[in-house]
Amino acid sequence: MQIKDVLAVVNDEFKSVDQLINEQLASRVPLVEKIADYIVSSGGKRIRPLLVLMSAKALGNCDAQAVKLATVIEFLHTATLLHDDVVDTSDMRRGNPTANAKWGNAPSVLVGDFLYSRAFQMMVELGSLPVMNILSSATCIIAEGEVLQLTNVKNPDLTEAQYMDVIHGKTAMLFEASTHSAAALLNCSAAQAKALQEYGKELGMAFQLVDDLLDYEGDAVAMGKNVGDDLAEGKVTLPLIHAMANATEDESRLIRQAIRKGGLDDMQSVFAIIQKTKSLDYTRQKAYECADRAQQHLELLADSEAKQALNALAMIAVQRNT
């Protein structure tokens, strides 16, 4: 099963999400609409709303409420992207200039706030306290994850356990919230809700591990961002953590200095050490372990086309090159 086959399972519902997104971007302030439409329409994978729709379909009822929840999730995600690009001073995302590069930091942050607010308006319309509880808690954890990552920039002493905590907060949490909130919306059994929650978490962890892997071996054109951005920004990810733990003392010292300094002056030397220590293979292995656990959690669900698509998505997430 390829991504097009996964999308085909919820094709009509996905079109409804796109339509609702466009309706909900309406604002009396033209610049708000312009920036929001720019970032929402910039070619993202829309994995998180897809997870909502497929989880709902796997549970037997992907209706208009599920479409609205999927739109809420996409707005929350887009808001975090706007804020992240300002924090990271990024100038490219998905092959296009970031919103802050085009319009400046202040409008980007404020439009991010608008999207958060619109998401919570729609959340209220869903009328589900369990969904509101899951998503409000998730947004707090996501913010904490971003702050945690920020406080560890240029910190070569970050451990693997701490790194896993960071990526759970900043990335996996919204995957987890997507599947968990879909289960809550449909009032399924506690066991099914837990299974989908854990599936989303493990899928999100796998997804971020591959992202961090691709930062060192990806194609800049295909990814729509610069290779080596993490090292340039002093972000410590699993390839670097593993390399430092398995390199010689001199090699480890070089990586530590490169992290503290930031920039790409030492990129070639660092990459050579990462290759020598097989740190990309180690990161890939960890991603596959997460994907495998994600698939195991799906065993509790009744067999269906949607369940098969969720199963396939776990492998697609780790085998991708963008």
From TrEMBL:
User: Which Gene3D superfamilies does the annotation name?
Assistant: Farnesyl Diphosphate Synthase
Q: Which CDD domains match?
A: Trans_IPPS_HT
Q: Which organism is it from?
A: hydrothermal vent metagenome
Task: State the family it belongs to.
Answer: Belongs to the FPP/GGPP synthase family.
Cofactor(s) listed: Mg(2+)
* DNA repair found in the keyword field: no
Q: What Pfam families has UniProt attached to this entry?
A: polyprenyl_synt (PF00348)
**Gene Ontology terms describing biological process:** isoprenoid biosynthetic process
What protein is this chain from?
Octaprenyl-diphosphate synthase / Dimethylallyltransferase / Geranyltranstransferase (Farnesyldiphosphate synthase) / Geranylgeranyl pyrophosphate synthetase
- GO terms for MF: (2E,6E)-farnesyl diphosphate synthase activity; dimethylallyltranstransferase activity; geranylgeranyl diphosphate synthase activity; metal ion binding
Enzyme Commission number(s): 2.5.1.-, 2.5.1.1, 2.5.1.10, 2.5.1.29
The UniProt keywords, alphabetically, are: Magnesium, Metal-binding, Transferase
- PROSITE patterns assigned: POLYPRENYL_SYNTHASE_1 (PS00723), POLYPRENYL_SYNTHASE_2 (PS00444)
| Keyword Nuclease set for record | no
The cross-references to InterPro entries, in alphabetical order and at most eight, read:
Isoprenoid_synthase_dom_sf, Polyprenyl_synt, Polyprenyl_synt_CS
